[in-house]
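Dissemination and training. As part of the outreach component of the grant, students in the summer workshop were shown how a complex can be specified as a set of sequence lines and then modelled as a single object. The example used during the hands-on session is reproduced here so that future cohorts can follow it. Participants entered these lines:
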Amino acid sequence: MKKEGVILIAEDDEGHFELIKRSLQRAGVCNQILRFADGQETLDFLFVRGDGPKRESDKEYLLLLDIRMPKIDGVEVLEEVKKDPELKKIPVIMLTTTDDPRTVERCHKLGCSVYIVKPVEYQDFADAVRKVGLLLSVVEIPQISKAQ
Amino acid sequence: MNKNVVILIAEDEPGHVQLVKRNLWRSCVENNILQFNDGQEILDFLFRMDNKRKRDERGCYFVLLDIRMPRVDGQEVLRQMKEDGELKKIPVIILTTTDKASEIDRYYRMGCSFYMVKPADYNKFMEAVESLGAFLSLECLRVPRIDGVERG
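and obtained this result:
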């Protein structure tokens, strides 16, 4: 992922967000990181609507997506993103406490890139995110143009 | 990921296959690895057309896919997988030599999970595969089971 690319983290738990951010940075990821506290904020950003921050054209984005969030949950966010002909190109990494085979299956059917269950132990969680960071450092991410 | 997930590598260059396998093992990936020499071979396996070697009806898979291969190329493999209601659930990482933006765009649009450019430098290629392996060896990575093929 190029250094201009932006990492979007949809996560309602502030503690988890801080841990994710720190662990990515520990893996050498120096990309800009934006946080969204629920699914609605995430969709408003991506679809360029509402009063909050908005997505810019011709930029690379990658989304780390929690499932259980207020207002709109992560599965619904994934569905909306993958239905849009342009936003569907955004790689979406599910990062959630939900460890249910049916949800794993549904998210893959909808088009998530990979699905990670948050480890309960702090150290394991940090290590998992660090390895996500290692992966991000060796893959290419597409640019997203204007909303359709 | 779970030890029962089988990693499928479609790659016609034997040197690259060896390098990928060795460095995945080095990063503690203990999963079974199957290799396919071209796109037709992996499609035959996935769609259970080859009686000698076919996909388990209730197996879990993760695919590493080269683009330039004889007979059927990686683009056609990805297209057929993602058009199938069941096979579309299999995560596919593209492993290729070109970093053209239009190609990156095309494969993400088609539904690849990630697109990785093979570094020309041997040591960098090894390191990149090790990073990939570190990720794949995560116990908390979940891969869905494939129950059948919707298309005949």
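The interface with chain A takes residues 85, 88-91, 93, 99, 101, 104-105, 108-109, 111, 113-117, 128, 131-132, 134-135, 138-145 of chain B (CB under 8 Å). Students were then asked to discuss how this feature might be tested experimentally.
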